[in-house]
Amino acid sequence: MATTSSVRGFAAIAYNEVLLNSKRVAPYVLMIVCSAAALMGWVRGPAAALGWATNSDFYISRGLKAFSFLLGPPLFSAVIMGDPVIRDFRLHIDPLIFSKPINRAQYLFGKFFGNFFVLVCCMAAFPLTQMLLQAFHPSRMVVQQVKVLPYFKHFFFFVVITHLILAAIYFTVGTVTRNSKIVYGLAVSFYPIYVSLMLL
Amino acid sequence: MLTIKDLTKTYPSGVQALKGVSLDIEPGMFGLLGPNGAGKTTLMKILATLLEPDSGAAEMNGINLISQKAETRKMLGYLPQDFGLYPTLTAAQMLDYFAKLKGVLDKKERHALVGALLERVNLSAERNRRLGGFSGGMRQRVGIAQALIGNPELLIVDEPTAGLDPEERTRLHNLLAESIGQNTVILLSTHIVSDVSTLCSSFAVIRGGEILAATSPETALARLEGRIWEATLPREQVADLKATGKIISKQMAGGRTRVRMLSENGRPAEPFVSATPTLEDHYFIVVNQV
Fold this sequence. Notes:
The complex is a heterodimer. By secondary structure, chain A is mostly helical. Chain A contains 12 helices and no strands. In chain A, helix 1 packs across helix 8 (about 105-125), helix 4 runs parallel beside helix 10 (about 150-175) and helix 10 (about 150-175) crosses helix 11. In chain B, the strands form 3 sheets. A 6-stranded mixed beta sheet of chain B has the order 6-7-8-3-9-10, with helices on both faces. A 4-stranded antiparallel beta sheet of chain B has the order 2-1-4-5. A 4-stranded antiparallel beta sheet of chain B has the order 12-13-11-14. The longest helix of chain B is centred in the middle third of the chain and has 14 residues, at about 105-120. The interface of A and B includes residues 93, 96, 98, 101 and 102 of A.
C-alpha cells in the first residue's frame, strides 16, 4: 500500500513536469533543432558526399554518436534538466508541495524522470526524422531496405544512456545550488572539457 | 484539540524566533495575532511540518506533528503567507495536481473535487484560465482551495488577507468561516486585528517569540469594559499625556490627535469620554505593555 502511494506521488510529480514542459517554448525549439540537424546530416552529410548508405547500421550509429555530443544536446540537457527544482523555489510553490503527503525522494525522482522523459522526447526528433527520410531520397543517394529497429537501438545506447548521466549531473547541480547560471556555466564548459579530454 | 508545548526555534543567524510557545487550541478558528517578526510564520511553518523546532512538542488527535510528518500532512491544509502557482497552468490543472499529491487518486473523484472547490471559491468560470493572468485575490482563493483539499482537520492560514481589497477580504473571511467543521482546528495568523474579531472564537497575542496573552475576544473586551477613554487633542497636549504611560493608541485626524487611554480609576482628565473597548485596544495594551 505504501509502495503504491509512493509510486503515485512520484507519477503525479513526473506527469506535472511533462505538462509544464508542454507549455514551454524550449522543448519545441529543441525538437525543431534536432529535426533540422537530422535533415542537415541527410542533405550534406557523408552519405551524400561519400556514397555511404544513409540507413546502414554503421551510418545510423555514427550519426547518433555525433549527434549525442557534437551537435548541442549537452546544452539541451542543461536547458531542460537544470531548473525544475529551482523553478519551484523561485515561484514559492515549494511550501504548497511539501505540506502535502509526499517525501523528498518522490519529489526529486518525479522531477528528474518527468524532465528526462521530455528531454528524450525532444532528442528523439533526430532519429525519427532520419527514419522518415528513408522514404525520400535523391536518385544518386544509396539507401538500403527500410529499417526501424537500429534507430531505436542506437538512440537508446548512444543518446539516452549517456545523457542520463549528463542529465543527472545538471539536475543535481541545479538542485543543490538552486542557481541556473551555474548549471548553464557547466553546460557551456562541457565542450572545452570534452575536447581537452580527447586531446590528452 | 491541538496542543503545543514549549516550542523553541533559533535560526542559524542567531535570531530566536520562538521562546517556549505553549498553547491549547480547541476546534474552531483560533487567531494568532502579532506584529511583523513576532514569530507567527515560524510557528505556522513548524506546525505545517516545513520547519524543525529546536525543542518542544505539538500534537493533534494523537498525532505528533513534529515526528509523524506523513500522518500530519494527510490531515493538514496549509496556506502560507508567500506562495506561488505555476503561471502556465490553469486553475483546474493546478488543483488537480495538488489533489493527486494529497492522495486523491481516482480521476473522476478528483475531477468532481476540483469542480466543487472551484465552485466554493467562486472561480468556476475561470477554471480553464491560466493562473498567470489571475489577480492577487483570485490567486489567494486558489490558495485557499488547495488548502481545503481532503477536508483537513488542521487548517493553517498565514496572513491570508494581507494585500487584499475589502471585497476580497470579506470573501476570504466567509470562505474561512464556512470551512469550520466539528473537529476542525483553523489556525489563522494575522497582524490585522479586525480579522480576529470577525472570525475567531479565541486568539493569542505573540511578540518576540513569546505568547503574551491567550483568551477569547469576548473575555478580552469584557476585561476592558469601563477602562477605555478617548479624546481628540492638540498635538502639544498629547506630549504631556505620554508621561502617564497609559496611552493605548494615537491617531492623527485633521491636524489633531485622537488618543485612547487606559484608566483604572475613572476619567483620566478633561475632555476624555468613556469609549467602547475594541480588540485593537487589547492588542496594543498587551503588545506595548501599557
